[in-house]
Amino acid sequence: MRAVVQRVTEASVTVDAEMVGAIGAGAMILVAVAPEDGEDEARWFADKVANLRIWNDDEGKMNRSLLDTGGAALVVSQFTLYGDARKGRRPSFIRAAQGPAAEALYETCVAELEKAGVPCQTGRFGAMMKVSLVNDGPVTILLDSTKAF
Fold it and tell me: Does the annotation count 78 as an active-site position?
């Protein structure tokens, strides 16, 4: 599982001119699922994101998490995080999980985040989406579950 976590002051996702998810201060999370990912990776992902200390404390140090700040998460599926452009000019996406298996784990990630206490909004799995955000900092963190296990 791979993710890009961005600290935001606001973020939204639109599908066919309909806003399907929006948050104020919190985290914009782009997430991709690999074929070998399972429940363990989804739980790791949710715990990592909920407790990732990338918000400033009273002394200006990144020492607070989404749980500490009461921030929300906008979670959007993005299989292109597994794009491999090392050869040629067109990325290969064979490392990304497909269809129902990917969607189920994406939904598990969202459910685990909510279970941890993080309010979540989502995009629409498999849809062409327009994502808007205001990156705060900017702070952007890359997560990869293969480096955690």
Answer: yes
